[in-house]
Amino acid sequence: MAVAHEIPYLLQTLPISVQLIIGAILFSVVAFIYSTLSDERPFPGFPVISLSEQGLGPKASWFKHGKQTVLKGLEQTKGPFQILTGTGPKLVVPNRFADELKGLDELDFNMAFAKDFFANYPGFEPFAQGLHDDNLNQETVRVKLTQSLGLVTNDLVDETTASIYDIFGEDKDWQSTQLKQGILDMVARLSSRVFLGQDLCRNEQWLHIAKNYTVDSFIAARLLRLVPSIFRPVAHWFMPHCIRVRKEYADANKLIMPEIERRKERAEKAIAAGSKPPKTADTIGWMYEVARGRQVNYVAAQLSLTLAAIHTTTEAITTAMLDIIEQPEVLRALRQEVVDVVGEQGWSKTALYKLRLMDSFLKESQRCHPPGFTSMNRLVKSDVQLSDGTVLPAGARIMIAPRYLDPDVYEEPLKFDAYRFLREREKPGQVNAWQHVTTSAQHMGFGHGQHACPEGSSRATKSRSHLRICC
Which fold has domain 124-371+404-440+445-470? Predict the structure, then answer.
């Protein structure tokens, strides 16, 4: 206590400049603590959901049983409710508001995810690039990749055939296999063929990074959320998964940058000679075109695409394969459709879109095994009033609950019906409304609204290419 009383007198003996520096440091620390803690306080006026009957508080409920917590909130409330996460509260908004929220400029996708995935920490640069507002990745995928699907379809089919034989073998006898791991290996090659070209798509070191960076970074982010926010800026330097993602990012730089520099040099030489840079059917070339001379972190951008593509596509194909195994009669119908369509048109982009039963099957598989139990994650930049008068406050992060199992939307929602969406498309004026890649409030497998997944078409193409071989 005596020492505490002496501190003010000791400070007075210090030069004014030192006192000002100490004061500034103390003010910054207090402001940081206040800002951090205030971000984690619940929003007034919205019920906080927890599994208290299981002896769990709000944060533990979300961390251990997130889906169950959301379902409880939907059962107990008619309006928005909140769950408490490791990075602060989030509001879960009923699905009936999805269409009125889908296009609002007051809602921001990037800012919602940046906080959850620590985009400002080293090793997480791909998240920062993917969430950057310069639209590099979005334009590369939405414009260049989507327009070039016809050009890359044959490459995808060739790589699918080669990878299936390389990974699963050519033995005609029955054998056991780890389906999901094999599909992950195959999807890593397919995605990398489009992203980086034929050479790197078979480079084992790159494939290791492509498959593991996503898993390691998500685990690292999940573990960081368990750390009190005030300690995270220091803790991440010592956490094994954070160390791992920093190394994987550094290794990716060593592999990708030489290829990028070769492409740049080739383009610059062509321009200097008065010619147009050579066109390439991969995202390295497309990113260079989209950048238009801007300084871009191409390695982070490539890993960002990998983050979005490989594991999501792997999950989709794996669950689809398991659904096929459980329904042999569907397999026969899918196989006949492939024989009829491809026999007539070969493997073209047009042929893929004519596989309507396969399209319906994939959409139904996604409905029964959705990639997440919430969708449309957004940050509210300024107050938004819903049609029922509820105000979503500025600074809130929101999620929309889907309706995949709602009997008011789907007849017999618990039944897997491969023909469900094929029948919907056969109704007048509905031919495009229920395609696999079409989003709606009723089916948000690729999100919904202006921030719907830009890779939906590419992922659907990879899925069809794989199933076409397997059928």
Answer: Cytochrome p450 (1.10.630)
